[in-house]
Amino acid sequence: MSDSITAWLAEHDIREVRVEGTNLEGSFIGKFVSPAKFLSGLTTGFAFADVAFGLDMSNNPQFGFAMPDWRGDLLDIYLHVDTDTLVEWSPGRASVIGDFRKPDGEPISACPRAALRRMTQDLSGLGYEVKSAVEIEATLFEESIYEARSKGYRDLTPLGGTAGSCYHLAKSADWSEYMRAVVDRLVEVGIPWEAYNDEAAAGQIEFNISPSDPVSTADHWARTRQIMRETAFAMGRSVTFMAKYSNEYGQASHLNVSLERNGHNAFYAEDGPSPVMDEFIGGVMATLVPATSFALPMITSYRRLVDLDGPPTTATWGIANKSAAVRAVVGHQKQARIEYRTPGSDSNVYLVLAVILAGGIAGLKNKIAAPAPFQDMAWCLPEGVQRLPDTLSKAIAALKEDTLLADVLGQDLVDYWVGTREWEWLQFHTGGGEPDVGVTQWESDRYFELP
Predict the structure, then answer these.
(1) DSSP bridge partners of 101
(2) Which DSSP string corresponds to 256-322?
(3) Residues of the chain above pLDDT 90, percent
């Protein structure tokens, strides 16, 4: 293999390789290495200090919870690249994605890509192939990132005009120029896409990435967001994936999932959800409330949960019901799937996909029947219908009480995630944040550019 990669590097005149991974917060992290260093690291991996998974988004070390065996006093962990993801990113530069492992080669428990790969393999062991797709939402601004920083990420000008009507086509040319530039980059690096459109808020867009296997879907998500940022920087614009950057509408990362067996959609049945879909939904619904912590990972994530604004606010599922947290699409041999509507645009798609699959695995293995589908509008409901956790601390508490997800995902991952979320809560409440005054300056400074 190294000979063919050596030839590929020479053929494309590659002078540096960006080795990449994703941390728990969903930030794309990595380092640049020479071609010679890249070739030498194909078997050994590339060393990163363990604080790559131990620093918050203000670059402060996270404390106050138990450290797993791969964490210590700046121990090395190793990024092992997946050469199937090797692409020419730009002239002279290649890009490749990998998983983080311990020195002995075992995946670290907190590696989101490794967790997703493991859930995909577990479903393969049950006889299923997973198909998934992601919808990426972001908001674009006329100001450059430097201007945005100087203004504290406040009072920015939406790119394309101030109209906030969903599917609005009368956008100014600058919006179209940016989107065309992004599409050109996606095509250049081989990321399949299906559609994009104006979303609900001014300057907001939705990008639909084509269905693929879960790991590829998450890889495409990470690279698409990187392309959107790089394109914005190059064109003197800025972009954010904050779940809610202002009092405008929030932003989501809806995820679509289906299972196939022997080339056929296992979720399809003529008269509605198949038995496989029913049990998968049963597990997803049994874990929906504790999974909220992964789907809504930041302080700002919960500011989206406003009835009638689009995001789900209740622990409900329904057939063709976009007001519910889980929408089932039935009656189509190719399109039968579930749409998981809780995640914010600030969520880590590797992790959330892993959590969705873990819930589905729990449902299939334990034959958990889905509750009755919700047939009404799932917003503005009276007491009696369970609501999703609407704060970071409530979601943490729900995850701590759960056992189903930990049984499938692994207790180490869940415990470490809980510790990082408790740290995030502490930083907000000791750093000057005020929970009831709208999006704070603390949130803008922390989340506008990351994750």
Answers:
(1) 78, 107
(2) EEEEEETTEETT--TTSS-HHHHHHHHHHHHTHHHHHHHHS-STGGGGG--TTSSS--BS-EEET-T
(3) 89
Q: What is the pLDDT of residues 202-225, one digit of tens each?
A: 999 999 999 999 999 999 999 999
CATH 3.10.20.70 fits 2-108, yes or no: yes
- pLDDT grade for 384, boundaries at 50, 70 and 90: confident
Q: What angle do CA 110, 311, 179 make, to 5 degrees?
A: 80
Q: What is the pLDDT of residue 400?
A: 98
Whole-angstrom Cα distance, residue 57 to residue 423?
11
Higher-confidence residue of 310 and 278: namely 278
Please give the DSSP secondary-structure letter assigned to residue 61. B
Backbone torsions φ then ψ of 154, nearest 5 degrees: -120, 155
Q: Looking at 194-203, 225-234, 367-376, which range is the least confident one?
A: 194-203
Token digits of residue 415 = 């415990």
Compute the distance between CA of residue 374 and CA of residue 318 in angstroms, rounded to an integer: 5
Yes or no: say if 359 and 287 are a contact pair by the CB < 8 Å rule.
yes
- Half-sphere exposure for 243 (CA within 13 Å, toward CB): 26
Element (H, E) at 145: helix 145-150
According to CATH, the superfamily of the domain at 121-447 is: Glutamine synthetase/guanido kinase, catalytic domain (3.30.590.10)
**Contact partners, residue 394, CB within 8 Å, separation at least 6:** none
SS (H, E, C) 380-408: CCCCCCCECCCCHHHHHHHHHHCCHHHHH
Residue 436 has pLDDT above 80, yes or no: no
Q: Whole-angstrom Cα distance, residue 283 to residue 360? A: 5
Question: In this predicted model, what pLDDT tens digit does every residue of 313-342 receive, in sequence order?
Answer: 999 999 999 999 999 999 999 999 999 999
Q: Which of 416, 441, 428, 451 is nearest to 64 (CA)?
A: 416
Mean pLDDT of the chain, nearest integer: 95
**pLDDT of 1:** 66
pLDDT at 73: 83
Which one has a higher pLDDT value, 162 or 357? 357
Query: Whose CA is closest to 399, among 283, 298, 290?
Result: 290
Answer positive or negative: Cα dihedral of 166, 168, 174, 179.
Answer: positive
Instruction: Give residue limits of the domains in the chain.
Output: 2-108, 121-447
Q: How many Cβ atoms from other residues are within 10 Å of residue 160's Cβ?
A: 25
